[in-house]
Design brief:
Elements lengths: L2 H23 L5 E10 L10 E5 L5 E2 L5 E8 L1 E8 L6 E7 L5 E8 L13 E4 L4 E4 L3 E6 L9 E8 L5 E7 L3 E4 L7 E9 L6 E2 L3 E5 L7 E7 L2 E7 L5 E3 L7 E7 L4 E8 L2 E7 L7 E2 L16 E2 L5 E6 L2 E6 L6 E5 L5 E7 L5 E7 L7 E6 L4 E6 L6 E6 L5 E7 L13 E7 L4 E4 H4 L6 E8 L5 E8 L6 E7 L7 E4 L3 E5 L1
Parallel strand pairs: 1-7, 9-16
Antiparallel strand pairs: 1-4, 2-3, 2-5, 5-6, 8-10, 10-13, 11-12, 11-14, 14-15, 14-16, 17-18, 17-40, 18-19, 20-21, 21-22, 22-23, 24-25, 25-26, 26-27, 28-29, 29-30, 30-31, 32-33, 33-34, 34-35, 36-37, 37-38, 38-39
């Protein structure tokens, strides 16, 4: 064999050897896929732009709008797959890729950072103490509560009572206290505080109970200006009082009936004055009249209870009506023959006599007289005088009538009174006692709105300056004692004493 052929043969032999060795040394690479989805914890809402990485490192991708992702052609092996998104806790899942072409699925349920936040402590109710009794009608609730993460806490207070199904909720409180006003006498209240940090579930306190003071047996009621309106106050003799009428409309002329167990008064609704009643604690407001109570001046109009508390007698211009306390049975009792207005009436305890004060449209040309229930005039007490008059009240026996008269005889368009005195007329002998003169009325003052005391040895009334604009005050006096004038209530008028 020549050298050229030998070399060519050797070259081909080496190529064959090398080709065979190459096929034995190179191994095939097996690959798989990792796919998955990222969603919000519990709600399963898809999360977009979640960063997906692996260890060992393969490829970094981000989830689509539907929260899905896929990493293709990942070499076979064990991997940790990590999901990251700002505002959420990082999640890591394992993926075991064993077979060529395999697709392994992973699901990331990602929790937001607040998941690590702790809720507020259970509110601790501090005041009033649980089962506290004789609490005022205005009191302060207080509690303690903390948050381990120092988050801002808002509170809800839930208030129930044992009188009805009312549930009051006071929301969005930021202080650890709440002042309650206008609570009801003799009522048990149940209160609970709910705390929220806006992140975790609300935290509820236990429920505590407190009971308000019992209804006081107040015998005095009077009118006082409260804000922009006139309100009726209920008081004991020492001046401890509470507001009986609680709405935002004025109320005047309180008249309590112990037999009926309610206090009647006048207030205007829908442009007309009507008689209403409430219980001694101010609850259960009830409109009695369907025909308005009316006269020349609503501040000079008065009405009267029957002794048994079942009916109310009241004027409406030139007429007198009687109505049951439940609003039923309205009846016309009397009408003036000359068209004069009836401003006031008083009903004797035995129910047989009515005292009336009539006047013209300006409040003057006053006449005070007594009629029976058939409208017959039994006695004329006052007539043919000038000036203002009023303030009718019967004694228990029905033998005396209390009234007022401006002895100056002054008359003007403002119905100003200059020298008004209290008088007692005795029906048995037609004598008249000037109580104001006997008890030394101060110069420049007038006595108005008189009422007999329950024992009739005293009179309660309003004393004020005759200038018509000064403060009014409620006094009491003994009919027989010259120096018995005693101030009961300041800034008060239209008193009632039962």
């Amino acid at each position: 064999m020549n050298s050229y052929k030998y070399i060519k043969f050797l070259f081909l032999f080496l190529i064959l050897i090398l080709t065979g060795c190459s096929e034995d040394l190179v191994e095939k690479t097996y690959k798989a896929n990792i796919k998955g989805v990222a969603v919000k914890y519990k709600t399963n809402e898809p999360l977009q732009n979640v960063k997906i990485t692996t260890a060992p490192t393969t490829e970094t991708i981000f989830t689509a709008a539907d929260g899905s992702f896929i990493i293709k052609d990942v070499p076979i092996g064990d991997y940790s797959v990590k999901a990251e998104l700002e505002g959420y806790i990082m999640e890591i899942k394992g993926a075991n890729l064993k077979d060529d072409g395999q697709t392994v699925s992973v699901v990331f349920e990602m929790k937001d950072d607040n998941t690590l936040n702790s809720p507020p402590s259970v509110p601790e109710l501090v005041t009033p103490a649980d089962n506290a009794e004789n609490q005022a009608l205005s009191l302060k609730l207080s509690w303690n509560c903390t948050d381990p993460d120092e988050d801002s806490i808002t509170y809800r207070v839930i208030l129930k009572n044992n009188k009805n199904n009312d549930i009051k909720t006071y929301k969005n409180l930021t202080e650890k206290s709440l002042t309650l006003d206008s609570l009801v006498f003799g009522t048990s209240y149940f209160w609970q505080v709910v705390a929220s940090d806006g992140i975790n579930e609300e935290v509820f306190s236990k429920t505590n109970k407190f009971t308000t003071i019992k209804i006081p047996e107040n015998r005095y009621h009077f009118v006082r200006k409260i804000g922009d309106n006139l309100g009726i106050l209920s008081s004991d003799e020492l001046g401890k009082n509470f507001q009986l009428t609680k709405d935002n409309t004025s109320a005047i002329r309180p008249r309590k009936s112990n037999a009926a167990g309610v206090i009647a008064f006048i207030k205007v609704v829908e442009g007309n004055p009507h008689i209403f009643t409430v219980k001694p604690d101010g609850s259960e407001l009830f409109k009695v009249t369907s025909i308005p109570i009316s006269g020349f001046n609503i501040n000079e109009v008065d009405f009267s209870w029957s002794a048994n508390g079942k009916e109310i007698l009241y004027p409406s211009f030139d007429k007198i009506y009687r109505v049951n306390k439940d609003g039923s049975g309205t009846q016309l009792v009397y009408q003036t023959t000359d068209g004069s207005f009836i401003s006031e009436c008083a009903w004797s305890a035995d129910g047989t006599k009515i005292a009336l004060k009539t006047n013209n449209i300006n409040g003057y040309n006053v006449k005070i007289y007594v009629i029976d229930m058939l409208g017959n005039v039994l006695k004329t007490i006052l007539e043919n005088v000038t000036g203002a008059a009023g303030g009718l009240d019967f004694s228990v026996e029905g033998t005396k009538i209390l009234y007022t008269r401006d002895i100056s005889g002054f008359e003007n368009s403002d119905y100003r009174q200059l020298n008004t005195h209290i008088f007692i007329y005795d029906l048995t002998d037609d004598t008249v006692l000037d109580v104001s003169t006997k008890t030394k009325i101060p110069a420049g003052y007038i006595d108005i709105d008189p009422r007999f005391s329950p024992n009739e040895a005293e009179v309660i009334f309003t004393q004020t300056s005759n200038d018509g604009i000064s403060q009014k005050d409620v006094y009491r006096l003994s009919i027989t004692d010259e120096d018995s004038r005693k101030l009961l209530f300041s800034n008060a008028w239209m008193p009632d004493w039962e």
